[in-house]
Q: What sequence folds into this?
């Protein structure tokens, strides 16, 4: 990391976000949920979905397209299922409560499934299956998203990055936790290429002429214009399986719109008549009670054995480890709890601005008077 | 198609397979199921999983590693879940009955999930969700498979092609029906390249040295030796998302082994001490009752609208259609019901051999005395 990056204790960062949400009128318990989901993203190393996105939520509340107070309601339910309307509330609160509802149903009735409409961006998809894993269940979460991905043989963004997350407990120190977009990558990755001055590899994006541009800065502009799209997992065409990633994206769209009677596709753009409008996102959550099938210990031992067999298999030249989904994130959480969360200079400036806007003068930002402070300084500060 | 290929009426082909199973000692109702699943594959145009694989099932029954009489049993169940032991019976029978069990549970209790162990190859994964779709439900099916896919940063085949299938009814003439392997492709595709004398594109396979060989014939030998693997959806490494396809493959492995206390990974090779042994495959089926969430008409209209919005979006140059998962297969079924199923000459020879072996002398094979017969001849014969 450059000397422009400081490391901040995760508890301090969490408290900053929590107080910021409260300052915007978010009830205390709901602010806790939002801060929890966001800091978990930073801890897992998914920097696009944590403190880096805090301002976006604040801005959307200011724009009036996210309700600071959660107005979600259960539209209908059975002992195993529910349809929830998020009321354009903060997606983290809606999603956490919906997943909890699925878990409660699975606790009593083996399986719980909850479909959500009219929600907003809920942070990392992988947060919610983790809740089920802690209760010795398998958890699944899906969300649609504003259109940014072109279908196979298409060049227009009509699907979101539509993530899939699946968590399963194991007898290892970490669970199996898959948390993936159904696109090859996300816009955030192209932003990183642009910042680094690197070209974007072919296979990730497509423009309206069917070309795969490599100029990362130009691509970012084209995304805004709608003249370039991300490609589905598997890339363009069918040769490498692009139709499979595209199909998985549509599966997520159906799970998140058809089961809840919600919006989909282009209607999720977040704009109406050129003005910001609620995103009307849909989610789908499932919790499966393992004990309804097999003893939990059997399940965990088999999941762990699958993980061990894969990790022990022959490595490709130049690689000395094979990672299991969730393994890198598990190690990152351990590390960041010790070292703090890296905050690059541009993000510090945004945070300082927010601090003043939200009246959080008690927080010790700017972190440093100069660029020479060390990790230890920050850890001390956050402790 | 070359003049070596004949077109056979699907009812005739189905009857041939049905009688073949019966001749092997498969009970009449079970033979019906097997023939149904296999002919559905041929009708959908998935030639690797239909009549082309008929001999494999016969051989495995002869080897004693598949039981001709279904001995599956329910190990445990709740109103929403069940664990089934397939007893090394024909996978089609086990799978159809397990999916039916999931549907019956969902009919009464909103959601049904059935985990299956000790099964065998069940044909096309997409057959089973179709059963749910016909009952106005969403259906999901998963299976593990003998190891052929290398994990990200690995070069050893430790995962199967582990298919995922998801079906949802729509207000269109066909449902949304995804049926995909979590690998980029399957061995059958490399066999086609080899037959055509075409190179295998990079991105589909990896050898133990980490190279991506393009010599299709050499690749087939390497698969047998275990010195080459298929790549997960997204390809080698992480740049194009290979870790996502790999993660989905592990998710399927967990669903199909941990919930049923079954076998996984290398244990699914079908060999023990160098001799054929039961494959011990696992499956996982889910049925979700749509009416427990929203009126079925609402669900179908939204799913149909998603399909229409995608189909109507801008096409890539050189393409005039965007396909929905299941659309090509739907059209192929219509076409093959009229034109018959194409049977290339090598497959005809296998069928003639089987006909004699199984004592099915009543069947009008060989189809032709020479290569000049027409589609009409065959249709007439099959009618």
A:
């Amino acid at each position: 990391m450059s000397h422009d990056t400081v490391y901040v204790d995760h508890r301090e960062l969490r408290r900053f976000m929590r107080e910021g949400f409260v300052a915007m009128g978010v009830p205390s318990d709901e602010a806790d949920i939002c801060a929890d989901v966001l800091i978990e993203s930073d801890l897992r190393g998914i920097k696009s979905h944590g403190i880096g996105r805090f301002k976006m939520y604040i801005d959307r509340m200011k724009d009036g397209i996210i309700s600071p107070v959660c107005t979600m309601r259960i539209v209908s339910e059975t002992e195993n299922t529910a349809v929830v309307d998020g009321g354009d509330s903060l997606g983290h609160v809606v999603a956490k409560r919906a997943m909890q509802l699925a878990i409660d149903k699975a606790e009593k009735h083996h399986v719980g499934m909850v479909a959500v409409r009219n929600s907003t961006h809920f942070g990392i998809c992988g947060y919610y299956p983790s809740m089920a894993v802690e209760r010795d269940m398998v958890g699944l979460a899906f969300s649609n998203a504003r259109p940014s991905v072109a279908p196979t043989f298409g060049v227009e963004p009509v699907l979101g990055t539509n993530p899939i997350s699946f968590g399963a407990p194991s007898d290892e120190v970490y669970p199996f936790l898959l948390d993936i977009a159904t696109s090859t990558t996300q816009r955030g990755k192209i932003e990183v290429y642009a910042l680094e001055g690197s070209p974007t590899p072919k296979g990730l994006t497509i423009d309206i002429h069917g070309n795969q541009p490599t100029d990362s800065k130009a691509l970012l502009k084209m995304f805004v214009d709608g003249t370039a799209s991300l490609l589905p997992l598997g890339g363009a065409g069918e040769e490498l399986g692009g139709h499979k990633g595209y199909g998985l994206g549509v599966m997520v769209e159906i799970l998140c719109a058809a089961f809840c009677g919600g919006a989909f596709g282009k209607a999720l753009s977040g704009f109406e008549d050129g003005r910001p409008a609620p995103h009307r996102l849909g989610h789908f959550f499932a919790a499966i009670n393992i004990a309804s099938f097999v003893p939990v210990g059997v399940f965990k031992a088999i999941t762990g054995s699958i993980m061990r067999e894969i990790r022990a298999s022959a490595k490709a030249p130049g690689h000395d480890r094979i990672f299991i989904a969730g393994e890198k994130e598990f190690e990152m959480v351990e590390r960041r709890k010790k070292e703090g969360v890296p905050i690059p200079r541009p993000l510090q400036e945004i945070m300082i601005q927010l601090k003043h806007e939200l009246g959080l003068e008690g927080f010790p930002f700017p972190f440093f008077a100069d660029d020479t402070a060390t990790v230890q300084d920050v850890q001390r500060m956050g402790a």
Observations:
- The first strand of chain B starts at residue 6 and ends at 8.
- Residues 368-383 of chain B have pLDDT under 50 and may be disordered.
- Residues 91-109 of chain B form the longest helix (19 residues).
